[in-house]
Structure of Branched-chain amino acid transporter AzlC:
Amino acid sequence: MSLSPAAQQFLKGAKDGLPFHIVIWPFAAIFGAIATQAGLNVVEVMGFSILVIAGSAQLAALQLMTENAPTLIVLATALAVNLRMGMYSASITPHLGKSSLLTRAFASYMLYDQPYALSTIKFEKEPDLSLSEKTGYFFGSAIPIAIAWYAMTLAGALLGEKIPTDIGVDFAVPVTFLAVVAPMLKTLAHVASALTSVVLVLILGFMPYGTGLLVAAAAALVVGARVEIWMEKRKAAA
């Protein structure tokens, strides 16, 4: 029996997402182990991963929690790290925005870095895809990675100290973000925003509880917006 176009796109999305599993599996397992070693029980660890489903924000929050940072700082830092999700949502709405309310609700939950990156590239290359095909591809790239994240987090939480947390997967977060961000640096505004955030994070590394990240994120958004406005004015003048 032949598969529907949407099902075919689901499988393509799952296939395109396979390379990300290389970093997701060890990253999730080590997060689970670190979280239990920090004092969280298995239910709390899984609640963290299932509700937040954002490894970078989870690690940032966990580190601050172990440093006994104020709750407000923990929440603000996690929100700052995840500010990009709002931009992801605005970017992908033209493609998935006409789906049913239930589909959009599930898509908003599954909207994290890897499926966003894969889907936006796919939709740009194949603009004639139907809504059902786009939805199928998006969920195909998102659901398998999410299941792997849950499963390996649970494995790490259950095994706890049996999993070494110093096996050198620190590269998982930066490599993932490079794979996501690099194809999107298409305009001067994007590049200016990215450079601003990198420079300020390095300069403000001395600030307590990682608050330099909050300043860098806010400054990068302002710089990106100002450069975008300048570019639009320049186009209008031309």
About this structure: The chain has two domains: 5-184, 186-238. The chain is about 75% helix and 0% strand. The CA atoms of residues 190 and 224 lie 6 Å apart.
